[in-house]
Design goal:
The complex is a heterodimer of chains A (400) and B (175). With 400 residues, chain A is mainly beta. In chain A, the strands form seven sheets. A four-stranded antiparallel β-sheet of chain A has the order 4-3-2-27. The relative contact order of chain A is 0.09. Chain B has 175 residues and is mostly helical. The chains are: A mainly beta (400), B mainly alpha (175). Chains A and B meet through α1, α2 and β1 of A and β1, α1, α2, α3 and α4 of B.
Chain lengths: 400, 175
């Protein structure tokens, strides 16, 4: 039986919904947008037995490699959605081509190579699209230094520095349109499940700790990365827990440490490897609610010491699980000043460099120069020998 | 490089007519759902248009057994994918309606509706979606889960948390 509050809520929703009336012009919008995407003209039986469709095709390289990545002029050409879901759907339905469809005009990153699998930041500070069918395409080529991409809601968020030492700014690239927008100052963006955007804000020289800023609509929350005050601390590698109520990050001065805070409590708590207490954790990431993955290096006592081991671990309240020995990766630099880790979904690379399903959840790990995809039962694969960070397209939900 | 091409296709008049019927039958409900989710009538129409384009593309190549459920899910996905950009406008609108409440001294019923909608607009997208689907469309938990692409258990916990948060936002006692 519903409570009084629930009844009032239901009445309020009905009252509110009654304030809006359908606009007859919407049908024309549907028609126009479907037509621009290469679909058949809608609602036009008067056209008789044939329909003529003008398809404007603009190649993916034109959209995503422009020097300044200006928004596409929609009056010039408009594309169908080419976000991760659309790209995946096109891939999944590659055989469903008996009838011409909007997919024939598909464009966007990797449109001709089975769709987008991941976005990779190269050591030169450019973003590349890694295609499911193998190969890469350039996403950015401007004068800035682009890094730390994350993917969410059909968009790539990353940070960009216009010059060495310049403050990083968050940038959003819409995968469907190619439009690029600068958002606000910050680095190491993370996207929460409800669209929250978190980033690390650090103003060198201001005598304050770096802060984590979480923006959700017009609500902004900021809190220092280290509760007890240590202005020399650096912070990086921010990640959301998939539940959206907690973030993880790496902070460091002499060696790295991993921290977490709930977005309600905002109290940073340092995490430690429960099984090897003198190990240092770095590069947190999360693909499962309440569980953080990190790279655990041992034994690093002071800056400059070279660790003798590095393991990928999973840590939750139930304890710590070791996943992979990174010392076994050919050429992996255990002492690299900055490590990288992000969820790889359940994808890996085959011998031809194509993204294929893996047997287990995978992770992308990097040492600042090389990126690997690591899984429990799959062979380790080299993603790039010239990249610092990457974001794998999340596994799409069933359509729509 | 921009290329143009003219493609002559065979008729799809039957498909189009069928889809037009589906559109006519479900547009109003889709619009009201989108409006409750995003709070702006113009953006709701825009999201609904995009949702129907996606449904149409699917319609061309696949049989859709339950168009109403499919459209519902498309609308929820479309609105929520645009949620971040809309949040600011929605909340600004909520603030404006708050100002107007004081100026016009509305009756209790209207005031309660405005408070409810203002509280709803401050929920995270997932909680708001679950509550609108459950309490406006009156969907069972299973259909709500299907529309959101989540499990039934997630719907239960999400609705519960959303209601609790709304009560707190409205200054009402949380049981």
């Amino acid at each position: 039986m519903r409570s009084d509050f629930e009844e009032r809520l239901r009445q309020a929703l009905e009252d509110q919904a009654s304030k809006v009336a359908p606009d007859p012009a919407t049908w024309r919008k549907v028609e126009a947008r479907a037509q621009r995407g290469g679909a058949f003209r809608l609602g036009a039986p008067a056209l008789g037995t044939a329909t003529v469709v003008l398809i404007v095709v603009i190649t993916a390289s034109r959209i995503f490699t422009g020097p300044d990545l200006r928004p596409i002029d929609r009056s010039e050409a408009t594309l169908q959605a080419v976000g991760p879901e659309a790209a995946s759907e096109a891939h999944t339905n590659a055989d469903a081509s008996a009838a011409p469809s909007a997919r024939s005009a598909a464009a966007g990153p990797c449109a001709t190579r089975d769709g987008l699998a991941a976005v990779i930041a190269t050591t030169l500070g450019r973003l590349e699209a890694s295609c499911r069918g193998g190969g890469t395409e350039s996403l950015t080529s401007g004068p800035g230094f682009d890094a730390h991409p994350v993917i969410g809601f059909g968009r790539v968020l990353f940070d960009r520095r216009q010059a060495p030492g310049a403050p990083p700014v968050l940038v959003e690239l819409d995968l469907a349109t190619g439009q690029v927008d600068e958002l606000w100052r910050g680095a190491w963006p993370a996207v929460g499940p409800d669209g929250q955007i978190a980033a690390i804000v650090d103003e060198p020289g201001d005598g304050r700790q770096p802060e984590i800023e979480v923006v959700f609509g017009d609500e902004t929350t900021r809190f220092p990365v280290f509760g007890r005050g240590a202005p020399e601390f650096t912070a990086r590698h921010l990640a959301f827990d998939p539940a959206g109520d907690r973030v993880y990050w790496e902070a460091g001065y002499e060696g790295s440490t991993v921290w977490t805070a709930t977005l309600e409590g905002l109290e940073p708590i340092q995490l430690q490897n429960a099984t090897t207490t003198d190990a240092r954790l770095a590069a947190p990431a999360s693909a499962q609610v309440g569980t953080v993955a990190a790279i655990s290096r041992c034994c690093v006592a002071t800056e400059g010491d070279r660790p003798t081991s590095a393991h990928l671990i999973l840590q939750s309240q139930r304890g710590t699980i070791g996943l992979a020995d990174l010392a076994g990766l050919g050429g992996f630099d255990l002492g690299a000043p900055e490590l990288f880790l992000s969820p790889g979904g359940q994808m890996t690379l085959d011998e031809q460099g194509r993204w294929v399903p893996a047997q287990d959840p995978t992770w992308i790990v990097g040492d600042g120069e090389r990126l690997y995809v690591v899984g429990d039962r799959d062979p380790i694969a080299l993603v790039s020998s010239d990249a610092v960070s990457a974001a794998v397209v999340p596994t799409p939900e069933p359509p729509p | 490089m921009v290329r143009t091409a003219v493609v002559v296709t065979p008729t799809l008049a039957g498909v189009v007519d069928d889809f037009a019927d589906v559109y006519a039958a479900h547009h109003a409900e889709a619009l009201r759902l989108a409006y409750l989710l995003c709070g702006d009538p113009h953006r709701a129409e825009d999201a609904v248009a995009d949702a129907f384009v996606k449904v149409y593309r699917r319609w061309q190549t696949h049989k859709i057994d339950t168009p109403r459920a499919y459209i519902r899910r498309a609308v929820v996905n479309e609105v929520n994918s645009k949620f971040r950009r809309l949040a600011l406008e929605r909340r600004e609108a909520a603030k404006r309606s708050g100002d107007e409440r004081g100026a016009h001294a509305p009756d209790d019923h209207v005031a309660d509706t405005e408070l409810m909608i203002a509280a709803l607009s401050r929920l995270p997208a997932r909680q708001r979606s679950a509550i609108v689907l459950r309490y406006y469309l009156d969907l069972p938990e299973r259909d709500t889960a299907d529309a959101m692409g989540v499990s039934v258990g997630t719907v239960k916990s999400t609705v519960s948390r959303g209601l609790e948060r709304m009560r707190r936002l409205m200054g009402e006692e949380v049981r």
